[in-house]
Automatic annotation (TrEMBL):
The keyword Acyltransferase does not apply. GO terms for cellular component: membrane. InterPro entries: BC10-like, Glyco_trans_14. It is found in: Membrane. Keywords: Glycoprotein, Glycosyltransferase, Membrane, Transferase. One of its GO terms (molecular function) is glycosyltransferase activity. It is a single-pass type II membrane protein. This is Claudin-23 like.
């Protein structure tokens, strides 16, 4: 009896490891995020320490609960113009193809020079041709960015911190990409942000303005994105019921820009973890942070129009020259929210000339 059992076991033994491996694969897939070390964070220690120093200076220079009237703030650059400004933050890893269109946008407003600042974070590993004009000397010290990683969060925070330090009159911070275009004139954008918001927000008391950032919790893939770093990896700082989704591009108030750069431990230590599965950290970090910090201070919608009807590999629809027309611009402006869309993406570089052809007659004619 013992001999026959031994014989059977010996003959079956070559199949046993294979069978065990096949049965254990689902279990290994489930437990791997808990028992295996995560891959190294794609942000070096040097870059992290450099950023911490920048964020600390920006946060210290801008108390989080300071409600100083914007008209009394003084510029670091010595200007005596009392008007608050919009900080336009361009996050790019290629040429600013639409710089000539933005040049027109900034120059067509009445006294627009004293009402905006420009800051550009360009991936230093990519050769980028300086656009010149109003973009001259607007590049900030930048670090490498990588899709589906926390480097895009770090780059946006770097832009916010630099703008906070540079000019105390920067009151709104508009994050844009190289594929974004304006849909209105500068005066229209400025008045929409600074003047048309006040009656609607009277009930908020001391909160004079709100941030325009998409904050949503209804996407079917939210749990998949939440578990992308491993099961329960976001706990305890970020419970799933507080996890949010939103557009990568937004317009933040100064108060919320300060809140973002002040975050060094709570949210950042979780979102800086690399994803085991596919995820887009920049679409979750800012909506989640501001939703937990100050949900009533946000509109929960963005001012940048994006067409996701035929997205490909996480990229939205890219508009090309044959699609461009006055009717498209009018359509892109339309919104179901209180404010119209002020910006739009994504446009191919060869759209520049057709856009310039309708800039005066359509885009900047409100």
């Amino acid at each position: 009896m013992s001999l026959s059992m031994f014989t059977f076991s010996s003959s079956a033994s070559p199949w046993v490891p294979t069978l065990v491996l096949l049965l254990s694969l689902p279990l290994l897939f489930l437990l791997a995020p808990r028992i295996l070390p995560l891959r190294p964070v794609p942000i070096s220690l040097h870059d992290e320490l450099d950023d911490i120093s920048l964020f600390h200076r920006a946060a210290a220079d801008s108390p989080p609960h300071q409600h100083q009237p914007l008209s009394s703030a003084k510029s670091r650059l010595g200007s005596t113009n009392p008007k608050p400004k919009i900080a336009f933050l361009f996050l790019t890893n290629s040429d600013l193809h639409f710089a000539p269109l933005w040049e027109q946008f900034f120059s067509n407003g009445s006294q627009s020079t004293n009402r905006y600042n420009i800051y550009i974070h360009a991936d230093p590993t990519v050769k980028i041709n300086p656009p010149g004009g109003v973009f001259t000397d607007r590049f900030i010290p930048a670090k490498r960015t990588r899709r589906s990683s926390a480097t895009l969060i770090a780059a946006a925070r770097r832009l916010l911190a630099t703008a906070l330090l540079d000019d105390s009159r920067n009151a709104f911070f508009a994050l844009l990409s190289q594929h974004c275009i304006p849909l209105h004139s500068f005066d229209f954008v400025y008045n929409t942000l600074f003047h048309r918001s006040i009656p609607e927000l009277a009930q908020l008391g001391s909160l004079q303005y709100r941030s325009f950032i998409e904050i949503s919790s209804k996407e079917w893939y939210l749990l998949l994105r939440y578990d992308a770093r491993g099961k329960n990896a976001m706990l305890p700082e970020v419970p799933f019921e507080h996890f949010r989704f939103g557009s990568q591009f937004f317009v933040l108030t100064r108060r919320h820009a300060v809140a973002v750069v002040r975050d060094r431990r709570q949210m950042w230590r979780k979102f800086r973890l690399p994803c085991i599965f596919s995820c887009y950290p920049e679409e979750h970090y800012f909506p989640t942070l501001l939703s937990m910090e100050d949900p009533e201070g946000c509109t929960h919608y963005t001012l940048t129009r994006v067409n996701w009807t035929d997205c490909n590999d996480g990229h939205p629809h890219t508009y090309r020259p044959p699609e461009l027309s006055p009717e498209l611009i009018y359509k892109l402006r339309q919104s179901n929210f209180t404010h119209p869309y002020l910006f739009a993406r994504k446009f191919s570089p060869d759209c520049l000339t057709p856009l310039l052809n309708i800039s005066d007659s359509v885009i900047f004619r409100d």
